[in-house]
Amino acid sequence: MPREPDPEWVTEKRRAIGARVRAEREYANLTQERLEELAGVKRLTIQNIESGSTDARISWLLRISRALGIPASNLLAE
């Protein structure tokens, strides 16, 4: 059974999280490839999170935040 598309507000929040991941990565002066090495999350997954095209698993966000040296709440803050 096909699932319904996400409401627009969910899509906007997903994009905002991705933008924060990208901003924190760039602030740390890391490439997606280096973040992949540090976080153990595939570069393509990081790319998809940053673009807002995929839902980020909490485990991915926890790994990414730890690699960036920031609390995971920074990535989820509104």
From TrEMBL:
PROSITE patterns: HTH_CROC1 (PS50943). Residues 21-75 form the HTH cro/C1-type domain. Pfam families: HTH_31 (PF13560). It comes from the Bacteria. Coiled coil: none annotated. CDD domains: HTH_XRE. InterPro entries: Cro/C1-type_HTH, Lambda_DNA-bd_dom_sf. This is HTH cro/C1-type domain-containing protein. It comes from Streptomyces camponoticapitis. The lineage of its organism: Bacteria, Bacillati, Actinomycetota, Actinomycetes, Kitasatosporales.
